[in-house]
User: Fold this.
Amino acid sequence: MAEVEQVLQQIPDHQHFAMLPQQHPLRALGRQIESLASQSASSDDILMQFSQRVTHALFKAATQVGRDFYTAMLERVCTQSIPVAKEAVLWLLNSDDEVRYEVQLNSLKLMRNSAQVQRACHRDAPSC
Assistant:
C-alpha cells in the first residue's frame, strides 16, 4: 500500500480514478493488487484481511482519486468472495468515520455494481 500512497500523492486532489489513462502507474498498481488478490481467492481469510486493509486505506484517503481507487479495489475483492463482500458492505454502512457519507456513497456504488453482493445482501441480510 505504500507504493499506492506514493503515487496518490502525485495526483491532483480533484482528479478521479476514471480520468486516469490506462498506462498510469496507479492503474498498473491496481492490476498488480488485483492479480495478488485473485491468487488468494481460495482463502476467504486472506481476502478478508486484504479487504480490511483496503477499507482502512479507503477511510484514510485524503483525495477523491484515492477514495475511487480503494473503492475499485474493494469492489474487485468483493466479487471474489460473498462472505467478504457482506462484511465489507457492513463495515462501510456502519462506519462512524468522518468521511462516512462519501464512503457510504461508494459502498452503494459497490453494491450496485456487484451482482454477488446484491444477491448476498438480499438473501442473508434484507436490511443491507
In short: The two ends are 29 Å apart (CA to CA). Residues 96 and 124 are 23 Å apart (CA to CA). Residues 41-128 form one domain. The chain has seven helices and no strands.
